[in-house]
Amino acid sequence: MKFKIVDMTCGHCVSKVTKAVVAINSGISVMVDLSEHMLTVTGDITADEVIDALSDAGYSAMEIKTTCCAADNRCHGG
Ligand SMILES: [Cu+2]
After folding, report:
1. What's the 13 CA to ligand 1 centre distance in angstroms?
2. Alpha helices by DSSP H, the chain
3. Segment 11-39, tens digit of pLDDT
4. How much distance in Å is there from the Cα of 69 to the middle of ligand 1?
5. Key word Secreted present in the record (predicted)?
């Protein structure tokens, strides 16, 4: 799943966001693209769980639907 986190702006944010998600389930893997403000989460977790955890950490996350090829879709590398 991919999320856009507009208010994730520096390395400190990245570590807070990563910790918040991993705290839900340590088995999931988290990838962050800071320049795009994007969070990629892989594992046994729902979008709502991610959004709730991030909101508790002070960030507003928006799920990016990955249907090919919506206007906001980056599947072809932009
Ligand atoms: Cu920051």
Report:
1. 4
2. 11-24, 47-56
3. 999 999 999 999 999 899 999 999 999 99
4. 31
5. no
